[in-house]
């Protein structure tokens, strides 16, 4: 017991020297004097820590949210870049760039490539192509840009040429006429049918020395869906592709007869049809909601067209290149910013005509100033900028490819 008391005194002295209990007691007394009781002090101290904890917690939450938003933004950018690389201009199974240098160019079809044979186009059509017969766009068509890429003369409208010019081997000719289709009754006013266009070429070029080294470009079929579609996608596509097959056979036979001593025609560039149901004239309320019944017909036609062209190539020993207008149109609609486009639903030039259910682009119609940012010039035709993009991608082999690779 004595040792314990001595030890307690020693411990107390040591503790007293260190000042721990005295300081604690003083602190407690001071806080008690301020707060009124030790328990109230402890409560205030707890509240203070809770407040600090809340501040720290909210800081961490806000920091976490900022990091999450940053990750989402970076992830979206990476996904967007991957999507654009994977889809825009995605290569076909066999990618082949084309070099048509030194070739002549003959054009057949409808308003997508018409150079003035229709005869009724007037400003503001051709607003960016001064001095030339207005096309169904603000400037050049895909046929015009194709000629530029080939390094050959831009084909001139058949109806604008005199007898001597028609016989001139240095003159490329465009036989296409707006409003024409593969079906003979697809003609809103007057039109040289596709077979008429072939006959015009044969009659005009009986001794064409450039016939063998020529590209025969055909862009037709869209007007048949615009003016003649009967609401039966599969049946209409079958009828239409049958007409294309017949037209191509007659064309090949007539051209090969004409050029038999020189080996006949060898290269055909055939345009398929884009999703007509998505053009401003046919979309639902001029939005990105398309007329899918029309598009089903177009899809069926394009699939059947591939089989017809493969057979045609084998039967006539010619070279067929498919221009995939459907893919190019879809890419530009799905990834407009990749092509510098900001408006893919409304025409640059067009007042809605409720009676005819289409956009009218006339002399008094206001025309947009930023035409390169529009996909459509009027309610059915691309701007010249979109036409140029199509040809650029075609020559690179991204949307044009040998039919055997499809």
UniProtKB/TrEMBL annotation:
UniProt keyword Membrane, yes or no: yes
Disordered: annotated span: 1-44
Keywords: Hydrolase, Lipid degradation, Lipid metabolism, Membrane, Transmembrane, Transmembrane helix
InterPro entries reported for this sequence: GDSL, GDSL_Est/Lipase, SGNH_hydro_sf
Keyword Lipid metabolism: yes
Biased composition (Polar residues): 25-38
Any one Gene Ontology molecular-function term assigned to this protein's record: hydrolase activity, acting on ester bonds
GO biological process, one term: lipid catabolic process
TM segment ranges: 61-79
Family statement drawn from the similarity comment of this UniProt entry: Belongs to the 'GDSL' lipolytic enzyme family.
Record's protein name: GDSL esterase/lipase
Source species: Rhododendron simsii
